[in-house]
Amino acid sequence: MSCLASCCVASTCGLCTSVASGISKRSARLAYCGLFGLSLIVSWILREVAAPLLEKIPWINSSGTHTKEWFQIQAVLRVSMGNFLFFAIFALIMIGIKDQNDRRDSWHHGGWIAKMVIWLLLVVLMFFIPNVVISIYGKISKFGAGLFLLVQVIILLDCTHSWNDAWVEKDEQKWYIALLAVSVGCYIAAFAFSGILFIWFNPSGNDCGLNVFFIVMTMILAFVFAVIALHPAVNGSLLPASVISLYCAYVCYTGLASEPRDYACNGLNNKSKAVTTSTLILGMLTTVLSVLYSAVRAGSSTTFLSPPSSPKSAEKKPLLKAEEMEEGKEKSKETEARPVSYSYTFFHVIFALASMYSAMLLSGWTNSSESSDLIDVGWTSVWVRICTEWVTAVLYIWSLVAPMLCPDREFF
């Protein structure tokens, strides 16, 4: 057994070394996404298999009265805390980087073997931390996960506005037709999905006023988005409104699907495992895509990801005067300080918050009262999702009316 373990460790180290050596400066952002994805896989695996092992560790199982669900939550939180500390430390180290001549720029893009070792050590060390520290981290993670959901909303708004602007700039009839087709399609999908939610979460013979309120509010918001976006005084478009409407319908579904399985108005309570699996997969996919988009978008964003020193967030100005360009061009190339294209600190903060969110998703927001087979179930999850939907609506409406209220500022 020990020989097999040694072989596995050796092959894993060899794989990590080859992968680390193949990471270039351009692919560093994707490498961070890969490392984050690895943390999700480790958390998921340990959640399923680590409970019997944690029961044998005296400083974790100090009272001897904990349930299986509690040990599963402990495994998820400890991996999450190690991952959070890794990205939080890098976020602190990268504060104040303005140009690529800064030595810390190479720390951000290189040294991947050392980074993998540090990440692994942090994760392992978390299993030696007292339970009280993990409990405090679990409470803080609820707020961090909420912040990440807010970042998700901002990223979605940025994406939809960029998508709309890219097609409008083409100024061709076929792209306008495509905009209209996608917008109508998203609206049809949003309202049809909302109708299905009435069937699933408002079963006959039960007083489900709360569920009806959530679904009706979602449909009203979709209608309000279209009215405001198409108002002559607002420089809006139907595409972002339709995409946000569809997203709100999805968030409403995830919230209602998170209702306790013994709740009479949860019409899917007889399909607990199927709903749980789909919710987990969609939640994880949304998390990974959000982090991946923020990583890729960081290099070209002109909004919240680019620092003031970035050439993409500032006005286009010549870096050198004409006289300086004539004298010693080769020397200027060596000494010129090229500004970074995005904020490294904010980049790592995204991953740190995503670590907290993934922990909440896998641990059901640290609610161990439900069955261990259920993921992200409970009234805490319901209200977090619904509040996320409403915050999304407020932010989108603000993005439409803000240019009128603050004409001197640029939004998206």
TrEMBL record:
<keyword id="KW-1133">Transmembrane helix</keyword>
<feature type="region of interest" description="Disordered">
    <location>
        <begin position="301"/>
        <end position="334"/>
    </location>
</feature>
<feature type="transmembrane region" description="Helical">
    <location>
        <begin position="175"/>
        <end position="201"/>
    </location>
</feature>
<keyword id="KW-0812">Transmembrane</keyword>
<feature type="transmembrane region" description="Helical">
    <location>
        <begin position="75"/>
        <end position="97"/>
    </location>
</feature>
<feature type="transmembrane region" description="Helical">
    <location>
        <begin position="342"/>
        <end position="362"/>
    </location>
</feature>
<feature type="transmembrane region" description="Helical">
    <location>
        <begin position="382"/>
        <end position="405"/>
    </location>
</feature>
<protein>
    <recommendedName>
        <fullName>Serine incorporator</fullName>
    </recommendedName>
</protein>
<feature type="transmembrane region" description="Helical">
    <location>
        <begin position="277"/>
        <end position="296"/>
    </location>
</feature>
<feature type="transmembrane region" description="Helical">
    <location>
        <begin position="208"/>
        <end position="231"/>
    </location>
</feature>
<feature type="transmembrane region" description="Helical">
    <location>
        <begin position="144"/>
        <end position="163"/>
    </location>
</feature>
<dbReference type="GO" id="GO:0016020">
    <property type="term" value="C:membrane"/>
</dbReference>
<feature type="transmembrane region" description="Helical">
    <location>
        <begin position="117"/>
        <end position="137"/>
    </location>
</feature>
<keyword id="KW-0472">Membrane</keyword>
<comment type="similarity">
    <text>Belongs to the TDE1 family.</text>
</comment>
<dbReference type="Pfam" id="PF03348">
    <property type="entry name" value="Serinc"/>
</dbReference>
<dbReference type="InterPro" id="IPR005016">
    <property type="entry name" value="TDE1/TMS"/>
</dbReference>
<feature type="compositionally biased region" description="Basic and acidic residues">
    <location>
        <begin position="313"/>
        <end position="334"/>
    </location>
</feature>
